[in-house]
Amino acid sequence: MHLRGDILQVCLPVEYPPITSFPSIANLLSILWVHKERTLPWICDHYVQLIIRPNHPVTRSDFYDQADTDNFIINGYFCPFLGWLRNNQTTARFTDFTDYIEYQINHGYYMDACLDRFFLSCSNCYNSRHFIHQSFIYGYDNDKKQVFISDFFDSGKYERKIVSYEEINNSIKGIDYHINLYKYQDCNYEINLDLLKLSIADYLNCRDSLKKFQFSNPDYNKNVLYGLDLYNYVIDVFCNEKHIDIRPFHILYDHKKMMKIRLDYLKKLNIFDSIMLELICKRNDSLIEKSLLLRNKVIKYNLKHNNDLLSKIKTECRDLKNNDYYLFSDLLRVLS
Fold first, then answer.
1. pLDDT per residue over 120-153, tens digit each?
2. Ranges of each domain in the chain
3. Do 10 and 163 meet the contact criterion of CB atoms below 8 Å apart?
4. Which letter, b or e, does each residue of 22-39 get, where b requires 16 or more Cβ atoms within 10 Å of its Cβ?
5. Nearest CA to 200 among 25, 88, 333?
6. 276: confidence class by pLDDT, cuts 50, 70, 90
7. Contact 114, 178 (CB under 8 A)
8. Using the 8-state DSSP alphabet, how is residue 270 labeled?
9. Which of 197, 260, 310, 328 is the most buried (most CB within 10 A)?
10. Global confidence as pTM
11. Is 2-44+82-184 in CATH node 1.10.3470?
């Protein structure tokens, strides 16, 4: 927080998140990553399981901890390091959204809100089409009349941008979607090794032992696939569509990067076989490279639609699945 005369400028601390597959993950982790040393135990026993919801209207592939249910509550909202509140335009009762932003930021609350990108000059939808999307807000400058936000804008990359008060006020007018508020709260959390082992076993066995989706009503949360079955769905469904969805491939890349973070943390605990963990870590480094190359090949295929390239993509998916199986199996043995 900076005071310049009677002008107030506030920018809450953020870091670039280690996972950027979807905004809900990136937004929460951009807060938690500021307090990395404190939050790593919780981060490391989460973001293991993957999920496919074939009938979901927007996101078929996802991290299990991120996947939304019928009431749009994700598991990340119950992170012990975050206080979470939900509002909307009606219940927040503001005239200008920027007044509400200033008040909440001044009290230490980050927020994400559903904004119409038609009014945001940093978006490729600006003045061209109406598109409502969740954007993360972490600061403002009352002097320059600017708001600091993060989102996936025009490049498909999670980026920080600056928008004017006028733009952001216009972007929420007439929209009564949710506004999430988050506040960091310190706590003493130790890694839950039982949860981690269960999540790894579930990933390998393509199941959900916790059955967190059982209470959900919508059809798109029925007949859900888990873990390594994501690879089968990618090969059999995604790779046979005219335009291959890049998101599951970016999720696989993020999944391997998250594993590196987890393995590095487990090595620091110094309670497991350090030689085996080091070997697993080196194998995972190779999977990070392979998953990145695979993702880039999909981008190339969407430009050229080359059948030989498509065949290579499917083959590399199968190879990645096999390597993934043996890596997770070895890690589970080390933890057990």
1. 998 888 889 998 888 999 999 999 999 999 998 8
2. 2-44+82-184, 228-335
3. no
4. bbbbbbbbbbbbeeeeeb
5. 333
6. very high
7. yes
8. T
9. 328
10. 0.92
11. no
